[in-house]
Amino acid sequence: MPEGWQWDKTLFAGSAAYYERGRLPYAPGFAEALAAALGLDGRGRLLDVGCGPGVVLLALARFFHEAVGLDPDEDMLAEAERQAGRRGVGNTRLVAARAEELPAGLGEFRMVVFAQSFHWTDRDHVAATVLRMLEPGGALVHISELQDPPAAPEPTPSPAPPYEEMAALVRRYLGPVRRAGQGTLVDGTPDGEGLVIARAGFEHFGRLVVPAGGVTERTADDLVAWAFSRSASAPHLFGGRRPDFERDLRALLRRAAPDGRFAERLPDTEIMIWRRPSAT
């Protein structure tokens, strides 16, 4: 958990409705690559901690007997339930709780996954708890966009989203320090997940990079959704100034691309794997 910051239930308040449209997807085939690496065969149980609207949970559910999604945000869980129904995924269970409340009577799992959520938790406590919840030889998996990817080989067909200018606009409305729920992140979110997880007693680390490839088109509506899907610019943070912020954001996007079309390279997906020792 970021030093000097306390979690509260407004961290992603109002963001669930924007998540699917605003966020870039993980690389196609990431679920299959992970299933092949771990020999997943439809048996055992999956726990997705901080599952949000179910992006990773629903992609992996078919490789397990049961897939459990845990998140403290009721709106995120409602969106995950809606998406499960729309996709016909019937082996999911959704639980409203924080990671710090584990094991929460949920039982034993073959795999526990954190998809860009581990940094929001009390990491040492949560990693130690997850170790006890895994079956012998079970895996803790961390999924994220690949950081510092290689330089793009060629330009995109439309302008790239003006993320720096968008961030500057957020700072103009919300102040120079990144907001997160009712608090701020002076030093951002922590990294070094590997050290924390190893300290808890995990071993047999492995790494997969699943290439995404290709360029995706993004519209102004997509980028507005991206802004509102983030904890640093969640809708509630703007209060009564939200319409003004959205007006100024759309004006910024029109200046960057008068036709309202942007292009963005899809990021590769990085998957880190640790195992619970069989003798633990």
Automatic annotation (TrEMBL):
Xref: Pfam families: Methyltransf_25
Residue ranges of domain Methyltransferase in the record: 47-138
Gene3D superfamilies: Vaccinia Virus protein VP39
One Gene Ontology biological process: methylation
Keyword line: Methyltransferase, Transferase
One Gene Ontology MF term: methyltransferase activity
Protein name, as recorded: Methyltransferase
